[in-house]
Amino acid sequence: MGQTPTLHMLYTCPFCWKVRSVIEHLGMDVNYVSVNGMKIKKTVAFADNWGRVPVFTDENGKHFVDSTPLMKHIDAAYNDGKMAAMGESTRQETWLDWADAKVSKATVPILYGSLGAAFKTTMRISKLEKFGFFSKRLYAWAGFPIMWGIIARKRVKKDGRTPKKLWHDLLTEFTDEHGDKPFFGGSEPDLVDFSMFGYTRSISPFSQFALLEDHEKGMAWYRRMEATLQ
Ligand SMILES: N[C@@H](CCC(=O)N[C@@H](CS)C(=O)NCC(=O)O)C(=O)O
């Protein structure tokens, strides 16, 4: 038995949403620990100096890091590896890599791709996340929005597509792969569904989520995914 597992996370971190979604789908009893975004490295230094969130600590006090391997571990340890066993493993691996390479990079442009977007996102984050009194104000008004705005705008320029178009293309590519099935995994969602769902869901606390909401097939899948959470 041991202790209740914990997940150290940031509320607005896309990688954390991937893992949280699997946890919620399986209905596991896990304590969520929100970390201060300015002190991540220090707060999770207990996990072999990985220095990032999410960090999962199991009932025996063992730590697991890196969202995709972490999702796989949770499936293996708490779900008899049922999701990993769905369909062909090379197809699953290819699409897990696809999500981590492509979709993860599409979230920054949509949240920070214009100055207005970057400002809205930053203000929202400063409200949602746990900060100290001063670091919250510092975060909202100083370097971060500018830094992110510059990175995001560079990315948007390089890609040539608007952040919205990029997301729509990714959702189309992904849902086309489902064929006539409700999920990537078939009649049930698998790890690829949860990876993609986590990335998409991480945008849901922000007003920019509206840009995704007119992708009909993508949203129908998103709502089906929500319905599988406990
Ligand atoms: N590959 C990692 C990436 C995790 C990651 O970059 N998390 C961010 C928050 S969204 C973080 O903790 N950054 C802290 C830092 O880089 O100092 C995963 O999938 O879990």
Question: Secondary-structure map with pairings?
Answer:
Elements lengths: L5 E4 L4 H13 L4 E4 L5 H4 L11 E3 L5 E3 L1 H12 L10 H24 L2 H14 L4 H9 L1 H17 L3 H14 L14 H11 L14 H12 L3
Helix pairs in contact: 1-3, 1-9, 4-7, 4-8, 4-9, 5-6, 5-7
The structure holds glutathione (GSH).
Describe this structure in words.
Helix content is 57%, strand content 6%. By secondary structure, the chain is an alpha+beta fold. The protein has two domains: 73 residues, Glutaredoxin, CATH 3.40.30.10; 139 residues, Glutathione S-transferase Yfyf (Class Pi), Chain A, domain 2, CATH 1.20.1050.10. A four-stranded mixed sheet has the order 2-1-3-4, covered by helices on one side. The radius of gyration is 18 Å and the shape is globular. The chain starts with 5 loop residues before the first strand and ends with a helix. The chain binds glutathione. The site of glutathione has 11 residues, from helix 2.
Biggest sheet statistics: 4 strands, mixed
By DSSP, the count of extended strands is 4
Any idea what the radius of gyration is?
18 Å
Q: Specify the CATH class of the largest domain.
A: Mainly Alpha
Number of domains: 2
Residues in helices, as a percent range: 55-70%
CATH topology category name of the largest domain = Glutathione S-transferase Yfyf (Class Pi), Chain A, domain 2
Task: Please give the alpha-carbon distance between the first and last residues.
Answer: 22 Å
How many DSSP H or I helices?
A: 10
Structural class: alpha+beta
Helices and strands, in order, run as EHEHEEHHHHHHHH
Mean pLDDT: 91
Q: If strands are numbered along the chain, what order do they take across the biggest sheet? A: 2-1-3-4
**Hetero ligands:** glutathione
The assigned CATH architecture of the largest domain is: Up-down Bundle
Uncertain residue ranges: none
Beta-strand content bin:
5-15%
**3D shape:** globular
